[in-house]
Structure formats: structure tokens, C-alpha cells
Specification:
The chain is α/β, with parallel strands linked by helices and 171 residues long. The chain is built from five helices and five strands. It is globular and about 40 Å long.
Length: 171
């Protein structure tokens, strides 16, 4: 895979961002793009927000008056992707993760915050490159299989805790 630029912004103050979480998010993005043979330079913007902001965004863009853990805003339409005219990089879209919600879900599922954020990132990057799960149970199952395969390759299978392995050292 060619170069990927993963831009990460912390737009919340309720959850301290653990050391290494930004690196893990980058590794998750790269793992998805690598597994999916995405061969072009790509840009992904990731934002950590609180529950209030994700509620606002969910209402505004999805017309859902409820909290959610992650939102994906893909820039790909069909097979067409926005391209930065200066750099030639493909702009895949934005990922917005509620760290408050991720903390709650990590506790509920009895795993680390790192694993939860990694899963949310993998899930969202798959959305950015065109995967969906709301249209049919087959698409949902296919996407879930991809998520679990990538998480296992990252050493974050559902039965494991956060482990760094040689796959994480790829670029």
C-alpha cells in the first residue's frame, strides 16, 4: 500500500487520551487499507469527541436523536473518490469517535479502551471505503467477518487484549 495520511484531532476534554492510542488508530487505518489492497495515497481524518458532540452530529447528519459510538463520513461515491489536486492524495473521509461512549462500551464488553477504539476505527474505515451493514444481513455478516479478521491480524481478536505484533509495524 502507498502512503496513508491519518490526521487525528482530540476535540473533547472528558476522557484522557491514553498514550499510544493515536498510533493504534493509525495502525488500524493502515491495516484496513492494506487488507483491502487500497493502492493509492489516502487521507483519513479522525476526531475524538464527547457524547454531546456525537449526539449533535448524529441528529444533524443522520436525523437520529440518540448517542452513538462512531460516525463515518465517506467521501467516496460509488467508485469515485475526492482527490486533493495539490498532493494527488485520495480523501477517504472523516471518522468521529465518542471517547465517552468507547469507555462505556469497553467496560460493558470487558475489554480495554484501546481494543474498543481499534474496533470502532476498523469499522469506520471499512465504511469509508464502501462497506455497509444496514442494507442486508449478508452485508452485515461480510463486514463483521472483515472486522474480525483485521482485528485478529492486529492482535486484538475478541478474546484477546491489546497486543502489539509484527503486523503493527507495517506501513
Amino acid at each position: 500500500m502507498k502512503k496513508a495520511k491519518i490526521m487525528i484531532a482530540n476535540r473533547q476534554k472528558k476522557v484522557k487520551v491514553p498514550v499510544g492510542l493515536r498510533l493504534l488508530v493509525r495502525k488500524c487505518c493502515i491495516a484496513v487499507l492494506t487488507m483491502e489492497n487500497f493502492e493509492t495515497c489516502a487521507v483519513i481524518d479522525v476526531s475524538f469527541v464527547d457524547n454531546n458532540e456525537i449526539l449533535f452530529l448524529n441528529k444533524k447528519y443522520r436525523k437520529k436523536d440518540s448517542f452513538t459510538d462512531v460516525l463515518s463520513f465517506p467521501l467516496i461515491e460509488g467508485d469515485v473518490c475526492d482527490k486533493d489536486p495539490k498532493s494527488g492524495e485520495f480523501l477517504l473521509g472523516d471518522i468521529v469517535i465518542s471517547l465517552e461512549q468507547a469507555v462505556a462500551q469497553a467496560a460493558r464488553y470487558v475489554h480495554s479502551l484501546q481494543r474498543e477504539v481499534a474496533y470502532l476505527t476498523v469499522h469506520s474505515v471499512l465504511h469509508l471505503i464502501g462497506y455497509t451493514h444496514e442494507e442486508s444481513s449478508i452485508k452485515k455478516l461480510r463486514m463483521r467477518e472483515k472486522e474480525e479478521t483485521i482485528m485478529a491480524r492486529l492482535g486484538l481478536a475478541s478474546t484477546c487484549s491489546y497486543v502489539v505484533d509484527e503486523f503493527l509495524n507495517t506501513q
